[in-house]
Amino acid sequence: MTRRSVVRGTGHYLPERIVANAFFEQSTDTSDEWIRTRTGIERRHFAAEGQTTSDLGLRAAQAALERAGLTADDIDAVIVATSTPDLTFPSVATMIQSGLGMKRGFAYDIQAVCAGFVYALANADAMLRAGLADRLLVIGAETFSRILDFTDRATCVLFGDGAGAVILEAQTGTGDNSDRGILSVDLNSNGDYRDLLYVDGGVATTGTSGHLRMQGNSVFRHAVEKLAATAHHALDLAGLTSDQVDWLVPHQANMRIIEATAKRMGLPMDKVVLTVADHGNTSAASIPLAMSVADAQGRFKPGDILVAEAIGGGLAWGSVVLRW
Ligand code: UT7
After folding, report:
1. 154 lines ligand 1 (CB under 6 A)
2. Residue 251 known to be catalytic
3. Quick check: 27 pLDDT over 90?
4. How far apart are CA 176 and CA 179, in angstroms?
5. How far is CA 192 from CA 168, 198, 200, 320, in A?
6. In the CATH scheme, what is the code of domain 181-323?
7. Pairing between strand 161-173 and 106-110?
8. Out of 145, 181, 187, 226, which could bridge 46 as a Cys pair, Cβ 3.0 to 4.6 Å?
9. 123 catalytic per annotation
10. Active-site option among 21, 123, 254, 281
11. Are 228 and 261 in contact (CB under 8 A)?
12. Topology of the domain comprising 2-173
């Protein structure tokens, strides 16, 4: 008998304000056409003034609980992946714990930038398997609009705000890959690449929150090479092959990266969940957002094999293979 982390429910929240590509033509030398053809992004959501990452994450968590028919009393722990916390501390997760009215359990944040949700899923799976919790809320929530330099056309057009939540529940399996739940995890990072994608401020340096800086084309090359490799490795660990994959749920950074990864995995695009056109890159929120949108559309069937993969600042990258 093996403890498995099975998806019990999903939910998401997107701020009301939708920002079309044309918005950026006012402040930088860019065009809707360039953004669409180079990234696949058509629009993104930006949080309202005063609306914080914990506000978005709380709404996503409430949506997931409602869809799963559960209440906050049924949850043992909250893990939030974010790089844009409301405050330096306490964690966004404890703020959401309080917002949900949870009177027990534990909550903490994880920071692995755009790979954050994959890291959070891996962490949640380890917690559940170790018996430290039976039911967990895993949330990706971001307000990247707060760290954008709106005069830098190479970065400001790429990112958006939002939150997605997944409820994982411990269930008993046989230990082979016919089980439902998380079947394998592959995590990687290489801090030598820190200058490719970073924020130029922080508590211990400038004392400010800073702005996002990226050498886009270098990150692009790493992404194309590393995402397919991590997905293949995680599939190997699960004893599965690409042709057994029903759904790729990729980090939604750039349509061209997603297409290149699917091609390297031999997957047709109709097996790929795509939200990049409507959400842009929401960093750690992008995978749970995509998962929740596809789940709400009834696209995943029980028994389907899903692969989630992401790469971001660090560089940090990884994948999770799970059976729905
Ligand atoms: O989520 C974390 C991981 N992040 C990523 O995965 C992002 C990875 N990188 C990318 O998605 C792409 O590299 C970008 C979308 C950021 C850029 O696309 P690219 O095809 O790699 O363009 P580039 O950086 O090589 O730039 C090509 C040209 C440059 O002009 P010159 O030097 O050729 O005259 C840029 O200045 O495009 C220019 N450019 C723009 N032009 C109009 C860059 N940004 C823009 C823009 N509008 N917004």
Report:
1. yes
2. yes
3. no
4. 6
5. 33, 12, 16, 24
6. 3.40.47.10
7. unpaired
8. 145
9. no
10. 281
11. yes
12. Peroxisomal Thiolase; Chain A, domain 1 (3.40.47)
Residue nearest to atom 38 of ligand 1 (CA): 154
Distance 27 CA to ligand 1 centre (A): 17
Length of the chain counted residue by residue: 324
Other C-beta atoms closer than 10 Å to the C-beta of 226 total: 19
Residue in this structure with the two tokens 């959070």, named with its chain if needed = 120
DSSP reduced 3-state for 299: coil
Judge if 2-173 and 181-323 fold alike in CATH terms. Answer: yes
Catalytic residue among 12, 232, 251, 279: 251
What atom in ligand 1 is closest to the CA of residue 254? 11
Domain extents in the chain: 2-173, 181-323
Query: Phi and psi (nearest 5°) for 21?
Result: -55, -35
Residues 51-87 pLDDT 10s: 999 999 999 999 999 999 999 999 999 999 999 999 9
Q: What is the distance of C-alpha 268 from the center of its chain?
A: 22
Q: Residue 272 has what DSSP assignment? A: B
- Nearest ligand 1 atom, CA 35: 48
Query: How many angstroms is it from 158 CA to the middle of ligand 1?
Result: 9
pLDDT digits (tens, 9 = 90+) for 199-210: 999 999 999 999
Residue 148 CA to ligand 1 center (angstroms) comes to 15
